[in-house]
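Subject: Re: docking follow-up (pyridoxal-5'-phosphate)

Dear J.,

Thanks for your patience while I sorted out the input files. As discussed at Tuesday's group meeting, I've set up the holo structure prediction with pyridoxal-5'-phosphate included as the bound ligand rather than trying to dock it afterwards. The sequence and the ligand SMILES I used are pasted below, so you can double-check that they match what you have on your end before we go further.
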Amino acid sequence: MSIPVERTLSPKPKPADQNKLGFGNYYTDHMFLMNYDEGEGWHNPRIVPYAPIALDPAAMCLHYGQEVFEGLKAYRTQDGKTLLFRPDRNMARLNLSNERLCIPPIDEEFAIEAIKELVKVDADWIPTADGTSLYIRPYIFAVDAHVGVHPGKHLIFAVILSPVGAYYPEGLNPVKIYVENTYVRAVKGGMGFTKTGGNYASSLKAQDEAEKLGYTQVLWLDGVERKYVEEVGTMNVFFVIDGKVVTPALQGSILGGVTRASCIDILKSWGVPIEERPISIDEVAAAYDADKLSEVFGSGTAAVISPVGELRWGDKVLSINGGKIGAVSQRLYDALTGLQWGKTPDTFGWTVRC
Ligand SMILES: *Cc1c(COP(=O)(O)O)cnc(C)c1O
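The structure tokens for the complex came back this morning:
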């Protein structure tokens, strides 16, 4: 399938200050669209000017949330190349989400080609300032005009692009995280392992309450016993205990992050012990009390590595590594960003040229 390109006749001005992009504030001049209609399959791929999408007021995505999405980035290297980081992983995960939400699978290789084409069309939107990148948001939603609960037969696959700033303009600042005891995000058998809007809708309340208490995000515990650690708002979580790195195993309620998988592979390549297993919040607190919890950090595409300086669990406050970034977090951050911006040789074969 070739992808026709309709270029905009009125390009937007680019954001004036690349050091003040923030996250999700600006969108480029074009978007990718493709339709699914029962009987025809996925068809009519096209790159068109960025513009509102008209929906029937009864469109199913607006009522029952049949929607999935992905998030990855394009990075501009010092010698002017554009790199994607493991886009095959994102497209495989999109199909995993699709399967759970009764959305017809997409052709993963074709979707990567579509993303590359779109990024090329809007290449002059990729910011070049240190730590900036072009965030890529693929998403699929059901548009059938039908207020009845069943899988949609008409869907749209879209990709939009957003130039984003360095997540930590002042360097890697450890964040304060609130351990959530009241609300839960997901349970086994639910949709926790997928990237679907509903998971985020259900997280807003806890996030809002944590922010009011001065915390950046929440750490979710398992939905059954409120005992085992799951993940942080939009990041997977790692603990460094007694020289070993521990991260919760993927058991259906946690999102399998591309950054998480990459951290595990990098740690293994360094010979650092890494365990994927259930880890309870009591074990974390006990390790802290025994002075064996040296680092906690989150991993995700947006922030790469986000060191945690404080964990609040009920009345207990765990101040981690004196509120400073730890050695493992810093080393992983440097390794990942080195690969993503093409500053270090890609011995893993993870980067893909646009
Ligand atoms: C996207 C996301 C992550 C991180 O995944 P990456 O592929 O590393 O960006 C972790 N947890 C949740 C809930 C997410 O939505």
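A couple of observations from a first look. The mean pLDDT is 96. Residues 175-340 form a domain with the D-amino Acid Aminotransferase; Chain A, domain 2 fold (CATH 3.20.10.10).

Let me know if you'd like me to rerun anything.

Best regards,
T.
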